[in-house]
Amino acid sequence: MSDTVRPNRLHEVGWLMEYRDAGNPAGPPIFLSLGETWERTPQALLDLLGRAPRHVHGYQIAMGGYPPLRQKLHSLLEREYSLKQDWHSNGRYEVGVCATGTRSLIYDYARYLAKHYAAGRRPVLLTFAPAWDYAGPFRAAGFTTRFLPLLPERGFAPDLAEILDAVDAAGRDPSTTAVFALNVQQNPTAQNLSPDLVDRLLGALVARKIPILIDDAYFAVTAPGTEPTCAMRMLLQRLDDADEDPLLYPWLLVRSLGKQFSCNGWGIGIAAAPPALLENLFNEWQLHHHYNINGLFQHALAEWIDSPDAEAYTQTQRSEIQDNRQHFLQLLHDHLGYPSTILSQSGTCTSFQLFPIPLRYTRQPHGAQRFVEDCMRQAGVLFTDAWPLPYNRGPDLMEYGFARVFLSARQSTLEEAVHRMEKVGLFYGEARPC
């Protein structure tokens, strides 16, 4: 943030720079918005960077990823997802390495589908809302997006009947080609979607031959005692039962390793898909914008991924995030006057938590964005709104607003953020709570 050039176009960054230029009036900025993990990367993983062989600093000829890492990621998926060994040996799937972030591979997949699967029809993306920005890379590939709302009055649980109706309509429409983006450990609602719902959804998609994107970014970021729902295993079983030809039914799984090990800036993740599709994505579409790079990071993760240190870090992070989740909600109740029902709204996965904006902001246009802006300008605390919430619904078009907090910060940081909000009067109700 010391540069004179604005880092990006996010409106939050504009507020942040104005706050900095005003002299940080409430204290140094507190970042609780987009997944900042600048201080949490495990030291043992960082130490591996300094012990890497020289050859990993050049281009890698294996477009599907640094072979030692790719092989370990295959073993990891087979173990963590309880995949049948013959699914791989029979050509149901192959595993590769995303070397420049999962977003770039999602974009390549969207372009591939638009060219080879849409066949002149209008491509449409189906996905939940609120959600990560799946619409972004798909829009750039020519897709429009239909959002399926996860409504707060339902606890952000999907409406299976509504989803199946949308899938059925998409499958019947001869003028469109649909794709479904599925994030099972759901960002930002922190809901681990139920196995029954996911299995029935996948069954409907397979029956209508609708391509699928599975984003498992937070599969390993779940609360202790929470069994993460595994969409890939269910999908492969559905395809096996239907005897679906892997050459004819496209699907792609991506899973960031940055979320699990606090190294988002490395851009390394897992990819899995039918072998021919994955080979095509890596050796044709990926070549439009990069070779296989970041060998240094791939080597370090290959040395780290199956170590006792990696397992210990993962388990510790899961516990810390869930403790922080409960602690933050308690802080909202104790210091900002949130009702006691806030304590029962805890999610069970991801490093994020949604929380309602104060009541006075719900009566304003774009209330969630205004609340996030006031938190930054007045308290120096940077949250983000829950895109693409808020929804305009009801006879008075009142907006249902939520903000999103990043929970992989230290508890002392969360406490400081809430105390600053208390000091400037950002209470849930109209006045300081008793």
From TrEMBL:
User: Which keywords are on file for this protein?
Assistant: Aminotransferase, Pyridoxal phosphate, Transferase
InterPro entries listed in its UniProt record: Aminotransferase_I/II_large, AspAT/PAT-like, PyrdxlP-dep_Trfase, PyrdxlP-dep_Trfase_major, PyrdxlP-dep_Trfase_small
Is this entry keyworded Transferase? Answer: yes
The record's GO molecular-function terms, alphabetically, read: pyridoxal phosphate binding; transaminase activity
Cofactor(s) needed for function: pyridoxal 5'-phosphate
Q: Which residues form the Aminotransferase class I/classII large domain?
A: 120-342
- Protein origin, superkingdom: Bacteria
User: GO annotations under biological process?
Assistant: amino acid metabolic process
Q: Report the family membership.
A: Belongs to the class-I pyridoxal-phosphate-dependent aminotransferase family.
Its name, as the record gives it, is: Aminotransferase class I/classII large domain-containing protein
